[in-house]
Every structure is written in structure tokens, then in C-alpha cells.
């Protein structure tokens, strides 16, 4: 029984840590799914039990032994795009993170989010944002508001080896064309991380190599929680948006030309820094973050007991325990702890 409970917990954590989401249900009732096949990624759309869309991403598995994993799907209402993001492993530790965008029966573009196969990019995670900002637009002495709308796909992943590794991030503007200069924005998240103490013991890869998005009520931004491989510090990075007016150019004769439309652009800012908990062993642990920006870490302390800590303004809380009982099963106890990340 002890071994069964431990195996079930490890399975739950492995599923959560490698949280790929190959399904997405949109508001029209379409269930989108992406799956691996010998031909490559296949996108299907199903409504009311009938498959109405089947399309293969035009990027086949050209090398024997290569395969696709960590497949995720998201459908954006504003742009009409269906995004598929996945990890393609070519051989050994050579891999890349790829995004493919589908709309109205055709593949709009395929984006290679990473450019170094040897860095073994892995464990991608995605989130959508729809941004609506209003700006004052005086016309003929009357002030009116113009709403600027954009949709974005956030992608975060881990890459590197034992000598140099870290979290990376990409922002894909779904409401732009492929040739827009800011259609894709990439960032090395280590550039936003804070310096900390060198870890006496490395943070286990099941935590460190899975940067995650915090759950939050507002979907006009994203919050990325990530650690650094050499320091005992986690950082919480917010990606919010502000409107930038287009540059103008004087065409002569007193006429001014608009070079491009107003658009929402990302603003990066660190919202919190958290040391690795020293009162809770990190082996086999899991971390979650909610809208209150206070991470929760938990692990199986014994076959019948979950131990957890909650971040506070004064640091991490004392270690608490929650016992698994016949009337409180493991799959019921874990959500109770994760709900502490409010």
C-alpha cells in the first residue's frame, strides 16, 4: 500500500510537471486536439461529436527516430488563430520548440521559437492573453477613446545542459502578420532573475526545469514563475502591455504620414523574488502560484502525509502537514493544498 500511494503521487506530479494540454474547447463548442503521428503533428476539430477539421502541420518528421511530445493547443477568439506548440526531439538531446498557427483551413505560419538544437529546449508551457487598452483620441476638439485590441501567445520553456541552463520565453502576437517586426519577441529569463546564494544542493529538475504560469483572474497579462540553475532563488515575472503610438514622418508640405497602427507592446517587470524553501525538502516537490503571487510548495513526506509551505510577506510559512485518509484521498488532498495558491 505504501508503495502504491507513493507511485500514485509520483505519477500525479509527473503529469502536472510535464503539463502538456493537447485539448482546447472554444466558446463555439469546437474541441481542438493536436496529436503526434508518423506524418507529424495532426490538428483536429470536433463539434458535437463530429470531426469537422483535420489538418497535418506541414513540417514532417524527416529524420528516423525523431518524435513530437509536450503538445499543447490554444484557440484565440479575437484573431481566429489556433496555436499548436510542441517539443520536437530530433535525436538524443537535440530538440527544438515549435509553434504552428492555423486559421480558416490553412496554416498561417510555423515559428521555430528556438535556434540551438544542442541546447535541448524542453518542457514548453503556453498561455493566451487578450489585451484591450483604450487611448484618448481628440478629434475636432472632442475627446474620444479608441480601443486597441491584440491577442498574444506566451510560451515558456527550459533549455541548456549541466554547464549552462535556464528558462526562456517567447511572445507571439497572434493579431499580426508574419512579417511584422514584433510578431515574435524572445527573452532569456535569466536576465530578469535576481542574484542569490549558490545552492548547497541543486534544485531537483522536476521543479527547476518546468517554469510555469501563475493562475490569475486577469487574462490581459501573464505571470511566469521560474528558477535559476545556480542560485537558490525563484523569480516571478509579469508580462503586461501598454499602448505605443505609431511613429510619424513628415512627408513634406505639412502632411504627416502614419507609419504603422497603434499597438499593445509588452512590458516586463519582476513582481516577486522567493528563496528556495529551506524547511521543505525539494525532492519530488511541486510548486504552484496563484493570483495572490504567493507560491505554494508541497511534497509527499510519507506515504500517508503531504507536507507543504506557503510563501508570505515575511518568508515561507512553517511546514504544515495534511494526512491522507480513507475519506480524504490523495487526488482530493492535492487540490486542497493547491487552492492555497489563491
Using brief descriptors, characterize the structure shown.
single chain; 342 residues; mainly beta; 2 domains; four-stranded antiparallel β-sheet; disordered N terminus
Describe the structure.
The chain is globular and about 60 Å long. The longest helix is centred in the first third of the chain and has 16 residues, at 2-17. Helices cover 8% and strands 51% of the residues. The chain has two domains: 2-276, no CATH class; 280-342, no CATH class. It contains three helices and 23 strands.
Quick structural summary:
It is built from three helices and 23 strands.
According to DSSP, the number of beta strands is 23
Give the terminus-to-terminus CA distance.
33 Å
**Overall number of structural domains:** 2
Order of helices and strands: HEEEEEEEEEEEEHEEEEEEEEEEEH
- Low-confidence runs (pLDDT<50, min 5 residues)? 1-19, 249-260
Mean pLDDT: 86
Total of helices = 3
Q: Helix/strand/pairing class, anyone?
A: mainly beta
Rg is 22 Å
Give helix % range: under 10%
Shape: globular
Strand content: over 45%
Profile the largest sheet. Answer: 5 strands, antiparallel
Topology of helices and strands:
Blueprint: H1 2-17, E1 23-25, E2 30-37, E3 40-47, E4 50-56, E5 67-75, E6 82-91, E7 94-103, E8 106-112, E9 122-136, E10 145-160, E11 165-173, E12 184-188, H2 205-208, E13 212-213, E14 222-227, E15 233-244, E16 248-252, E17 255-258, E18 263-275, E19 286-288, E20 296-302, E21 305-312, E22 315-316, E23 320-323, H3 330-338
Amino acid at each position: 500500500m505504501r508503495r502504491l500511494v507513493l507511485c500514485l503521487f509520483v505519477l500525479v506530479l509527473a503529469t502536472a510537471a510535464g503539463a502538456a494540454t493537447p485539448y482546447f474547447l472554444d466558446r463555439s463548442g469546437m474541441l481542438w486536439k493536436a496529436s503526434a503521428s508518423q506524418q507529424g503533428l495532426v490538428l483536429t476539430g470536433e463539434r458535437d461529436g463530429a470531426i469537422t477539421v483535420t489538418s497535418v502541420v506541414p513540417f514532417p518528421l524527416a529524420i528516423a527516430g525523431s518524435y513530437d511530445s509536450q503538445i499543447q493547443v490554444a484557440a484565440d477568439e479575437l484573431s481566429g488563430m489556433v496555436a499548436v506548440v510542441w517539443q520536437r526531439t530530433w535525436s538524443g538531446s537535440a530538440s527544438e520548440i515549435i509553434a504552428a498557427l492555423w486559421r480558416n483551413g490553412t496554416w498561417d505560419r510555423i515559428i521555430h521559437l528556438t535556434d540551438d538544437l544542442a541546447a535541448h529546449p524542453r518542457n514548453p508551457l503556453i498561455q493566451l492573453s487578450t489585451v484591450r487598452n483604450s487611448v484618448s483620441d481628440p478629434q475636432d476638439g472632442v475627446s474620444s477613446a479608441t480601443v486597441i485590441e491584440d491577442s498574444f501567445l506566451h510560451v515558456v520553456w527550459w533549455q541548456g545542459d549541466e554547464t549552462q541552463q535556464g528558462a526562456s520565453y517567447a511572445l507571439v502576437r497572434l493579431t499580426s502578420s508574419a512579417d511584422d517586426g514584433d510578431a515574435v519577441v524572445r527573452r532569456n529569463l535569466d536576465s530578469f532573475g535576481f542574484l542569490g546564494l549558490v545552492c548547497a544542493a541543486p534544485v531537483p529538475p522536476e521543479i527547476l526545469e518546468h517554469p510555469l504560469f501563475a493562475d490569475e483572474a486577469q487574462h490581459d497579462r501573464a505571470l511566469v514563475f521560474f528558477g535559476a540553475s545556480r542560485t537558490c532563488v525563484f523569480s516571478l515575472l509579469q508580462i503586461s502591455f501598454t499602448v505605443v503610438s505609431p511613429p510619424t514622418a513628415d512627408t513634406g508640405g505639412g502632411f504627416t504620414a502614419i507609419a504603422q497602427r497603434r499597438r499593445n507592446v509588452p512590458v516586463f517587470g519582476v513582481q516577486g523574488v522567493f528563496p528556495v524553501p529551506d524547511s521543505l525538502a525539494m525532492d519530488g516537490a511541486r510548486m504552484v502560484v496563484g493570483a495572490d503571487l504567493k507560491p505554494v510548495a508541497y511534497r509527499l513526506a510519507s506515504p500517508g502525509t503531504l507536507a507543504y509551505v506557503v510563501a508570505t510577506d515575511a518568508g515561507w510559512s512553517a511546514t504544515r502537514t495534511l494526512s491522507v485518509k480513507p475519506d480524504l484521498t490523495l487526488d482530493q488532498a492535492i487540490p486542497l493544498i493547491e487552492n492555497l495558491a489563491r
